[in-house]
Design brief:
This protein has five helices and six strands. The protein is of the alpha+beta class and about 220 residues long. Strands 1-6-5-4-3-2 form a six-stranded antiparallel beta sheet, covered by helices on one side.
Length: about 220
Amino acid sequence: MIPALITSGIAATAILIYLVSIRPWQHRWGATDEEVARAMPGDELVRHPSINATRAVTIHAGPENIWPWIVQIGFGRAGWYSYDWIDNLGKPSAIRIVPEWQELKIGDKIHLSKWTYEIVKQMDPYRSMLWAGGDSSATAGTWAWGLYPSGDGQTRLVTRLRGRYNWRSPWIVLLLLVDTFDIVMMRRCMLGIKERAETLVQQRQGKGITGGAKLTP
């Protein structure tokens, strides 16, 4: 009886610490107060979200060197620039811009995995993109990408995940695990984009090349 009570107490304490401290931190990793408060595409599609996560990173590159990496992202395409053994079936994410993956348009599917996908709902090239309306019955949500140049050659890459959970879905337990641990993959993804974009800038400067979203480094 006593060991069971101790175990339950430890579990309850861990959950409380996560909800009060860790979850709020990871749901705004890298983002400023202004970025968290700022409206992004798709906000209006999910009222009273169960998850509203805004993450951001500074990239020493202009949008023209960042956008091509985002456009080609996805399972079965360029991958997620993250931990490929987890989210890309072990296939390495692309380290170059692939021309045939640059022609993304509204209505196209972005596969999150072999079985799940989101649909491109809005696109403002070099500024923002919105994914939504996928095939999951556990949540209704959106995934927005935004590029905000600072005018000094740097750009803030901001992503926002908003979702409203279906608590009756049989997949809700899995979804809550994703809610807890997606920061690991999302952080690595954003840093992967940063690394690739900054490397591209260095290579273009070395070659005396500017612009051109389809350039293969």
